[in-house]
Amino acid sequence: MANDVAGRHGVGTAPADAGGSASGTVDAALGHAARLMARQPALALAQAREILRAVPGHPHALLLEGQALRVLGHLAEARSVLVALVASQPRAAAAAAELGLTLAALGEDAAAMAQLRRAVALKPDLAHVWQALATLLRANGDEADAGQAEVAGIEAAAKDPVLLRAALAMGEGRLDEAETHVRARLAMIPTDPAALRLLGEVLWRQGEIEAALPLLRAAVARAPAFVAARELLVRILAMGPDVAEALDHASRLVADDPEHGGHAMLKASLLVRIGDQEGARDLYRAILARDPGRPRVWLNLGHVEKTIGNQAAAIEAYRRAAALDPATGEAWWSLANLKTVRLEQADIAAMRAALPHDAVGDERAEDVAQMHFALGKAFEDLSRDEPAAAESAFAHYARGNALRRSVLDYDPARTAAAVDRHAALFTPKFLAERASWGCPAADPIFVVGLPRSGSTLVEQILASHSQIEGTMELPDMMLIADRLQSRVDANDGEGGEFADMAALLAALGPDDCRRMGEEYIERTRIHRKTDRPYFVDKMPNNWQHVGLIRLILPNATVIDARRHPLGCCFSGWKQYFARGQVFSYDLSEIGHYYAAYVRQMTAFDRAIPGAVHRVIYEAMVADTPGQVRALLGAVGVPFEEGCLAFWQNRRAVRTASSEQVRQPIYTDAVEHWKRFEPWLDPLRAALGPVLDSYPDVPAGW
């Protein structure tokens, strides 16, 4: 800070009769004193006083003397020096600034603020002075003026040549150069919010998220009104699993500027993640009340209305989005994905008109794929009365799947290899030796399997019980597994700590397993809104981690929801998933995936019989009361009649089956795949013996 205060901001020059040579010597001495200030203020003070003995009353030397005294804690003496300097140099911004900082340290806030205001009035680009003024204003309850001062300080800092060079380098992708520049700025002013934020963004772009977050937190703590820093902090925090801190900051953004639609959208997305659908809905409605011409907001509103169970409102929102922008494929697919809505000929015509007539570029591939999925659903509905429409439906589904698959990275061999390793590791002996490990909590009920297997129905039945809370598809177990996998994967061309995941899991000790189980319980707490003792985690992909679940949460319940291979796989193939499920966009690949899932679950059943309770969808449809009693018995809770009237449960449901589980069980979907049987040979071949033996498993598995 010495260089920002001393010698560059309007302090008068040496006496006119000082000779050129003497002046050069004094300037050199002043420069040396300024450089000493940051690291050795006592030596800087001695140097300033030496200059004053040679040139009494030299303004720069007096300024350095006052600053050094302040830094050393000799505040009364510093004030005396600086009051005299300000009186003799009334147009010197640096002198007023230094006096203001000294008075602030003495606790004389009113006088300090007057001097700081005077300094920035004389020289508005003093970023650190604006920040000091903001701190005092906030401490004295003047939040509005504090925010304005912070903004002015950040705008001043943004004009600094060093930060400008850093921002330019970052924008051009020269991140190492940008980091060098911004660190140089922080070496001079370690608390500069603009520099802290810029370095945070540079590190984030370099993939150093854990290093970026403290810098952004420091920028926000130093300058609470620094909107750009807080917004970037929210967006980075939102990428991780822990949304509580992100939501706190997003709430501050909305409170500070309720009319800012982008901040409201950001907060709403976080509310959705923690299950506060009503809160998100209110924000979306408020945005649309001000600006009804925003298709993306109508689309998001439709999503939350669907989740809450307001189907009519969801339909209206999706149709408003599609009307505003007919090329928005997500609007059409979301409408079709309600399952209970039948698209009309006018909808088909509108989608066809919006489809491109030439090659699809990357920027439109997602929208076009979703429109093909929606057209597939529209023609599938028509095929109930017009069997010939099934061919058109299948053709659109195939086109949408091909577009989606073309942008995804999925290798079936990796899934098969992981299943082999899982079966080899989780033997009866391995599991028996670790039976008492892990966190003893019995709260979680994991519903695993494939998407479109009836798992949402199982969840809805369970969540209709007075002791069980339904949450949603929680990512936490997969995130724990991903963190473990990062210890296996290669880094910078070198192997990780372990040869594979099996080797890592085998190396875990009792304390490791207990800590991870406790971590899962703690991470999922934000999704629990009631005091019910059990909760459902309906992430289907957790079948891949059933062994890990047993290690870290041995008392958790695992429910395997299984459906006829052709029905399950075909339903998954014609579903456009918002994320994940990368195996589902090719009939052969989803068939192999289903077979791999059955193989792993069979091996686990053999290793620890009875640890997994299996629900066969067709059996649930045929004998709902008997299957529900068995399901509740597996959890260890008494039977309740309310579980048979599950469709009356108005809880939020976020999956594709949200509308289907809001009506009684029906049999239409059990064999819906038969209309498309002529085109399912690749799926049959991939399923192999799993298809022929269902609901049992192939002999010898």
Protein model, in words:
The protein is mainly α and 701 residues long. Among the domains are: 2-123, Alpha Horseshoe (Serine Threonine Protein Phosphatase 5, Tetratricopeptide repeat), CATH 1.25.40; 412-693, P-loop containing nucleotide triphosphate hydrolases (Rossmann fold), CATH 3.40.50.300. The protein is built from 36 helices and five strands. A five-stranded parallel sheet has the order 2-3-1-4-5. The chain is elongated. 46% of the residues are buried.
CATH superfamily of the domain at 412-693: P-loop containing nucleotide triphosphate hydrolases
* Fraction of helical residues: 55-70%
N-to-C CA distance: 72 Å
Main sheet record: 5 strands, parallel
Which CATH class of the domain at 412-693 is shown?
Answer: Alpha Beta
Give start-end ranges of low-pLDDT stretches.
1-10, 12-20
Structural class: mainly alpha
- Nearest-integer average pLDDT: 89
Pfam families: Sulfotransfer_3, TPR_16
InterPro entries: P-loop_NTPase, TPR-like_helical_dom_sf, TPR_rpt, TPST-like
TPR repeats: 93-126, 295-328
Protein name: Tetratricopeptide (TPR) repeat protein
